[in-house]
Amino acid sequence: xxxxxxxxxxxxxxxxxxxxxxxxxxxxxxxxxxxxxxxxxxxxxxxxxxxxxxxxxxxxxxxxxxxxxxxxxxxxxxxxxxxxxxxxxxxxxxxxxxxxxxxxxxxxxxxxxxxxxxxxxxxxxxxxxxxxxxxxxxxxxxxxxxxxxxxxxxxxxxxxxxxxxxxxxxxxxxxxxxxxxxxxxxxxxxxxxxxxxxxxxxxxxxxxxxxxxxxxxxxxxxxxxxxxxxxxxxxxxxxxxxxxxxxxxxxxxxxxxxxxxxxxxxxxxxxxxxxxx
Length: 277
Description:
- This protein is an alpha+beta fold.
- The chain folds into 2 domains: 1-51; 60-276, Porin (Beta Barrel).
- The chain has 2 helices and 10 strands.
- The protein has an 8-stranded antiparallel barrel with strand order 1-4-5-6-7-8-9-10.
- A hairpin with a 5-residue loop joins strand 2 and strand 3 (95-107).
- The longest helix is centred in the N-terminal third of the chain and has 48 residues, at 2-49.
C-alpha cells in the first residue's frame, strides 16, 4: 500500500513539474516575443525618424548676419549671504544686539522683450548679441530671531522689490548638424545688466549693475516663413549685487537690523526665451 502511495506521489510531482515547466516555457516565449516586438517598434521609430522631409528655408543659416525679435518669460531669484548676529548703535547711542535672516520665498513670472543680431562664424558656431529688457518682482522675507511673536516664533517683515533690467547678452552658440527642419544647439555667454528701478524705501537695496554668466540649450525650428528658436538658459550673477550703503539711508532704529541682515547677494535667473528670426 505504501509503495502504491509512493508511486502516486511521484506521478503527481511529475505532473506538477511538467505543468510548471510548460508555464515557464510559455512565459519565456511570450517574453521573447514581446522583446522582439519592442525591438521592431524601436527600429521602426528610428527608421521613421531618419526619413528626410522637405526643408523649409534651406539657405537661412548661410546668412553672414541677421536680425530677430526676442520674447520670453523668466524667474528671478537672489541668494543672500546672511551676516548673522550683529551689534549696532541706535540713534540714542545705545548698543543693540540683533539676529535677522533674509531670503526670497516667493517667485513670480517676469517677462522679457528685446532684439537680436547674430553673426555666422562658421558651419557650427554663431555669435549672438541680444539687447533686452527683463521685468520682474522679488519677494523677500526677513526673520528676526531676536524678537518673538505671541507663539514664540521669530517676527517677520516682508519687502517687495520690482526690477527692470536692461541687458545685452553676448553669446557663443554651438549648433549640431541640421536635420530636416530642426537643429539643436548649446550656448554660453556673458550678460551685463543695469537695474533701472531705484526704490530706496525698503530694507534692502540692490546695486545698479550686475554681470551674469549664461548657459543654456535650445533648438532651431525652421518654419515656412521664419525660424523659431526656443531656448532654456540659466543665468548666475558673478558680481555682488548687495548695496551695503543702504543702511546709511535708514533712520528708523527698528529697521536697521533688517537693512544689515546680509553682507552679500548674487542674483539668479531661469529664462525661457523665444527667438523669432
